[in-house]
Amino acid sequence: MKKKVPLTFEHAMVRAASYLGHKERLRGLLEVTSNKSQRCYESLLVSWETLQIFIRMLRAWASGSYSAPADSILMIVAAVIYFVSPFDIIPDGIPVFGLMDDVAVIACVAKANLTAISNFRDWETRVSA
User: Fold this and answer.
1) In which element (H, E) is residue 30 found?
2) How do residues 93-109 score in pLDDT, each as one tens digit?
3) CB 27 within 8 A of CB 109
C-alpha cells in the first residue's frame, strides 16, 4: 500500500504551474474551491473573504479580462490547491484544527500579494461601475 505524503505549500506551488497553461482545468479547480469554501464558511472566518477574492481574481485572469503578475497568480493558485487538498499538513478531517493550516496559507499568500490584490480590487470596482 502506497503511503500518502501530506501536501506542503511547496508541492502546491509545483502543481500550480501546471494550471497556468490550462485555463479550463483552473476553472474546474475554482469550482471545487468555491464549493468547499461555502461548506467551510464558519471555519474559515476572516480568510473566507480573502479566498473569495482569490477565486474572483483567478476567474478574471482565466477569462483573459484581467492581467496580474505571474508570480502572484502562481502563488494564489497554489493557495487554492492547498485549500482544496483534504490531505495537507493538518488533514481537513481533524475537527477544529483541520483548516487551520489552510487559513494560515491563505493569509500568508494574501500578505505576500497585497499589491496585486489591491490592484485587482481597484480593477473590480472600475469594471463594475
Assistant:
1) helix 23-39
2) 887 788 889 999 999 99
3) no
